[in-house]
Amino acid sequence: MTGPRYTDLAQSLPALVPFVGPEAQERQLNQAFRARLGANESVFGPSPLAIAAMAKAAAQTWMYGDPENYDLRLALAAAEGVSPENIVIGEGIDGLLGYLARLLIGPGDSVVTSAGAYPTFNYHVSGFGGQIHAVPYSGDHEDPGALLAKALETNAKLIYLANPDNPMGSWQSRSTVEKMVRDIPEGCLLILDEAYSQFLAPEDVPAIDPNDPRVIRFRTFSKAYGMAGARVGYGIAAPELITAFNKVRNHFGMARISQAGALAALADQDYLAKIIAHVAQARTHIAEIAQTNALVALPSATNFVTIDCGHDGDFARAVLANLIAAGVFVRMPFVAPQDRCIRVSAGTNGDLDIFAKALPGALSKARADL
Amino acid sequence: MTGPRYTDLAQSLPALVPFVGPEAQERQLNQAFRARLGANESVFGPSPLAIAAMAKAAAQTWMYGDPENYDLRLALAAAEGVSPENIVIGEGIDGLLGYLARLLIGPGDSVVTSAGAYPTFNYHVSGFGGQIHAVPYSGDHEDPGALLAKALETNAKLIYLANPDNPMGSWQSRSTVEKMVRDIPEGCLLILDEAYSQFLAPEDVPAIDPNDPRVIRFRTFSKAYGMAGARVGYGIAAPELITAFNKVRNHFGMARISQAGALAALADQDYLAKIIAHVAQARTHIAEIAQTNALVALPSATNFVTIDCGHDGDFARAVLANLIAAGVFVRMPFVAPQDRCIRVSAGTNGDLDIFAKALPGALSKARADL
């Protein structure tokens, strides 16, 4: 009596979880975190109008969601100034990255990203047998020139660039990204992960022809809109690529409540503007806390601040472990030399007070172990 | 300036939607359906406790859901009398079928199902290049003996059996399924789709060792629990197979509100019992409407009734089109000879009154065109 016959590829994959969730850490610590500042969620929550729309939709959840996401696609197209044919909606950017990898990547296909960039992208690429070529960050920024050169060298099918970047919070100038698009090698698709784009100054957001077949931009309701748990991401790309998603996506995969919530959140741009202001204040607050502790906060165009702890990765990992033990959920980059930092999401004043109180002890304990 | 380079497999796939949703039909008709009885959703809705839990969770949707689905897995394991290591949770059975196909199926691999069975399963198998071998229904039942023989003949990696069956509403005796499990060919996995299992008499539900490596059972909150729009399905299988899902699944793919809703729904077994009774009444009501119109309602252990319209597929398709035009959303089997039927989901008395009023005209108009 033997088990199922897996594909060779599936057989070869590790059964690892790309991230451990904060709930798993809480179960391990046997206590709830006092401040949840590790996953770049928006502690400020969704728009009250979105909350109301979701609460109202709860009783309607006996119906499947519209598999075409018609209303939301239309609203997003209007908001983004593109056609609905330029929009695909999916179960978060994570889900869409998985579908895209499936459409393009087979065993041995080359993909280029930065060492230490979004691991879930790598998870999906490896999951389809792709070969990841990672180039180093340059001065805590992703390096468009190096990404392009590596793509040319490896005949890559995909380049991944997050702008603004996670985990460093850094960003590229508009002209840099626009030049990068012009220079994409033939047959290569640029994934521009813009999960944090609402935190960029509008004039810093690159202008890209939505019908350009060489680029797909991904955006999300998980960050500025405060709806990470709703799982609503979207891609903006040329209609041919958008249509291709229909070949592989889970058509009835979108939660109906999430569709309703995203639609209401999108309509409440006043609330979004308030959140962006709250996040800017929180970034300043985090930078002040860093400075008080003689640490350097890196500039950020996101809803988090990456703090240089001033030593190596082992030191930062010790600081992180001490913060976690003190009930403060934070995360950190995992590749040197960026792993000298910890990453702290924008929080309420209450959250940041908890962080401010925990940090000095976390640092002194780590220093004592140096 | 060329587009992305798709895999050969992706290039070969049709950009079809497996089902057209009722919302798309409503947009086409430019009117809302008066009765939504086509997707085997539970018009009775979720438990009030689940609705309350989801409404309460709306404000918490700024947090990602727990990627391990820990609480729900634990609760399901207790409810099913298995270990949490036997449970995988995903974005509906649809999502889980996709992951399972990805784990097992590569180009040319054989898969066995019934002609006219669940098309989304075929969509996922074809999407990974699998070769589908379909055997006919026997007397409006899926045919376990024929499925097993075909699996042996084609060296199939997967057999799909829905019990109770969609779209026919028929079911297998407990001993038939248990014998089928004993007879699964070496190296083949039986997918037992039990989306409708709560509508079976408990003594008719087959007993299967959850650690048997040859079977995975799929169940869902979409049908009896009335939460189709929440996208919560689960699989029960041996730990090795359950663990394999972690290699490919969208770890952060579950909506947080859905997790909360499913947990509350599962805890409200009194409500579930009431729904099962409501559905039984509705089935009787649908059968009476069929009889009034000189049609034969097939026996059903599901939340729908399949009605034999007494002629061929063209006739049933005409009846269906007339019902849709009259504002009644219903569907039908799509393979002969089962396509002589239409399929009507359990509705409220109000829904079924609308159906009862529309049916005679739909029939007479179809007869006039014979």
How is this structure best described in words?
By secondary structure, chain A is an alpha/beta fold. Chain A folds into 2 domains: 8-45 and 270-368, Aspartate Aminotransferase, domain 1; 59-268, Aspartate Aminotransferase, domain 2. Helix content of chain A is 41%, strand content 14%. Chain A contains 13 helices and 12 strands. In chain A, α3 runs antiparallel to α10, α4 packs parallel to α10 (256-267) and α12 crosses α13. Chain A is globular. The mean pLDDT of chain A is 97.
List the helices and strands and how they pair.
The structure is a homodimer of 370-residue chains.
Chain A lengths: L7 H5 L9 H8 L5 E2 L11 H10 L12 H11 L6 E4 L1 H13 L5 E5 L4 H9 L3 E5 L8 H11 L3 E5 L11 H9 L6 E5 L21 E6 L12 E4 L2 H7 L10 H12 L1 H24 L3 E2 L6 E5 L4 H13 L2 E2 L11 E5 L3 H20 L2
Parallel strand pairs in A: 1-11, 3-4, 3-5, 5-6, 6-7
Antiparallel strand pairs in A: 2-8, 7-8, 9-10, 10-12
What labels would you give this structure?
14% strand; homodimer; 370 residues; alpha/beta; Aspartate Aminotransferase, domain 1; Aspartate Aminotransferase, domain 2; seven-stranded mixed β-sheet
Residue-averaged pLDDT of chain A, rounded? 97
Which class of secondary structure composition applies to the elements of chain A? alpha/beta
- Strand coverage percent of chain A: 5-15%
Q: Total number of β-strand segments of chain A?
A: 12
Q: Which of globular, elongated, flat, extended, rod-shaped describes the shape of chain A?
A: globular
Largest sheet data of chain A = 7 strands, mixed
- Any idea what the radius of gyration of chain A is? 21 Å
CATH homology superfamily name of the largest domain in chain A: Type I PLP-dependent aspartate aminotransferase-like (Major domain)
**CATH topology title of the largest domain in chain A:** Aspartate Aminotransferase, domain 2
Terminal-residue CA separation of chain A = 54 Å
Low-confidence stretches of chain A: none
Topology of chain A as a string of helices (H) and strands (E): HHEHHEHEHEHEHEEEHHHEEHEEH
Q: Using CB atoms under 8 Å apart, which protein chain pair has the greatest interface?
A: A-B, 94 and 93 residues
The top-level CATH class of the largest domain in chain A is Alpha Beta
Estimate percent helicity of chain A. Answer: 40-55%
> What is the number of helical segments of chain A per DSSP (H or I, 4+ residues)?
13
Total domain units of chain A: 2
CATH architecture of the largest domain in chain A: 3-Layer(aba) Sandwich
Strand order of the largest sheet of chain A: 2-8-7-6-5-3-4
Determine the oligomeric state from the structure.
homodimer
